[in-house]
User: Fold these one by one.
Assistant:
Number 1:
Amino acid sequence: MTTPRRRQVSLLLQEFGLARASDLESRGVCRPLLRTMLREGMIHSPARGLYCVRGFGSAESRALAVVAKRVPSSVVCLLSAVRMHALDAAEGGRSIGNPLMPTIWIALPPTARTPRLPQVRVRVVRLSGACLREGVQHRPIDGTSIPVFSPAKTVVDCFRFRHRAGIGLPLAVEALREYLRLHPGDAARAELAVHARHARMSRVMEPYLVALEGLPR
């Protein structure tokens, strides 16, 4: 049965996209009502303490939102950022792993605890200083603001972590090729150079830049 209080919960979840229990409590929703609606299948809980409407987003967008809410100090990076910025030219994109439990790559400070989240497999890289602070953008996905490294920073990180399992040099080169195609011009090239210098990747990337910039786009 739909009551005014239940309609309020549904409207709030449509507004938030993905909401913490505390977000809803601050708007007058009690936790027993959330548990009742969850038990009756009216709402969904993709992770402990988080709620959304049924059918909220894709499995990957839900996973990104869960990570953003539960690990606010994290920044989406590497393969997950490649997918968000469409820097993977492979047909259909690269696999996110088990579609029922997507893999999300995040960057964290060196001393941050590695998160353990139900229904989301998290791969963590450790960054500090300018390599963690700079190049962060915020992308809205299904009502949730997702911190993610910029396309230029993502390309540089792919070269930096090219020896990490699941990344590899072919992905780094592919991301660089797509970046140059999607972001032509001196400003984009200069941004790439800044991040490469901070990550000490300039010499590593230079031969690939020279080769790719000489190809027709």
Number 2:
Amino acid sequence: MSARQASDAVAQDAMAVKLTAARAVAAQQAAQQAAQQAAQQAAAQQAAAAAAAKHKAAVAAKAAKARATASALAASRSSKRATLTATPAASSSSAPAPAPSGSKVDQLIAFLKAQIGKPYVYGATGPDSYDCSGLTQVAFSKVGVSLPRTSQEQSTVGTPVSLNSLQPGDLVFWGGEGSAYHVGVYIGDGQYLDAANPSSPVGIKPLTYSEPDWAVRVL
């Protein structure tokens, strides 16, 4: 082998070594990039999972709070209604005073008296059981008057009237406007009809039995 051939062979070997080294570096860099990408993807997945878990926990907490609030409200209303105990038997047989506005009031009171003795069930709107506002809503619908569903909402409609100026068909309330916890209907002769609580079915009571706080007129 001549000196020139030997020199060319050495140069080729050196080039091959450099090429191999470059390929090794490139492979190492590619592996590092792949590892970094995998780590980033894993971190992103973990972050997404943590965010989803946090959101789920927040939703569950809100739902639990809403349930607790609803239970507290129901318990409060039941506690307040517990003071409106069973209708005395003698008062249930009393007849109402003549209705001032004619047939609508007569029909209203006739429907209400037909419900006497039916049980109180929270949230019920008849025909076999009622809660206080369910009874008044259904009764007034029979004479063409649309009332909201709850006693709180019903206490915001109509024209306020003095308890000294009550007329048959007036709604009587316990509690404030927009926060009433019970409602009944004045039927005349100093009496009202209501569905008070689970221990007191639909019946008639004297105003002196549990005097309302105020009243409104919707007929």
Number 3:
Amino acid sequence: MSDQTFSLLDPFSSVDLGLADTADGIKQWAIANRGIIQPIKQVFNDLIIGIDTALNAVPPIIMLCLIVLIAWQSAGRRVAAVVAVAMFALGFLAPNAWSLAMTTLAIVVSAVILCFVIGLPLGIVAGKNDRMEAAMRPVLDTMQTIPAFVYLVPVVMLIGIGNVSGVIVTIIFALPPTNPADITWHPRREPKRCRSSARVWRLTPADPVQG
């Protein structure tokens, strides 16, 4: 409570819950204990550096051709042509633009790999355990709803500014979609999923279903 006299007309200035002091204490603790998370940071950093080194070892023209080929096979010729023009323009922006682009790609690839390594087992466990699913769903929904920049502040306090912080924030935001997919498509939940589809299409037990 504040030293000021409580007033019904202005209760906010006379009540102090101490939230600011608590938040400041958490911040100071995070800054003072950065060393605890350094081993995890080192693992993430080694993965990023390894992928970045591999991508930058490939000559730019060969990498450009591979990217255009992937775009062609996955999205068609028009998208491949747009990708080719964009990548050529990127390469001519600055002498180090291509290497920076490969570093960005390495960060994205690292985040995707770590998302699957962490999210796939959690999704399988949640698919087999109803209690685990019930505990995970609100957490995953919160992770996906809150903007990624909100996670950036505590991550930077614990790890510092750098590529690893970007990867961790990306993982937090991109991890939830991997889990609901595993939970929904787990064989144990197949009848429930079929019933949900039947309700959507307003089917009855008497309606024939063709495979």
Number 4:
Amino acid sequence: MPQLIQNGALNTAALPVPDLYVQIAQPETLLISGVSSALLGFIGTASWGPVDTPTIIGSVVQFRQIFAGKRAWSSNLNIAVDVAVHQGASQFCLVRVTDGNDVAAHATLGAAQLKARYTGTAGNALTVSVMSQSFRDGQFVLTVAHAELGTTTYGGANWTALQDALAADNQALIRIDLTGDATIAEAGSVQLSGGEDGAERHLTVLLASRRPRQGFTH
């Protein structure tokens, strides 16, 4: 008749007669290795970046590419992330909030009205220049530069083409609105200004405002 035997206790060479022998084997892996799912969430202020939108980041460098540098406010997200990183945190879900008085930096260059993609004082450090390509007649290069947010370039024959190139880039730092002839009359450069962060208020006041919120809100 069938016999149940613990694994290793059966000597198959000494079996007297054929039969059904079932050996009970212990599992080789007793523990399942854990996978970290820790994600630290912060709600706060910043000088750049999307408002009321949860954003996942994994480093201080990535934070500054999205939300720019530190602001001397107790509610500044950059300060919170810096402190958390020194405590060992490495994954964050961040939501930038404002009091509703934040303004995007802007400037005029030829027939183009330039506007920062996001509100905040970080936009005041954006420099935009347009110059002709010496090796291609009728073609221009638009350069958008920021010390923390990086530098990008776009090419086109006129302001409309440059406007389309910026619209196609979902990481572009500025947007263009045309107010007249799309022809680029001459090269030039300008620095954006007028960007505002709004006033710093206690987060309970910010979150209790009448404006709809998304992400980490309540």
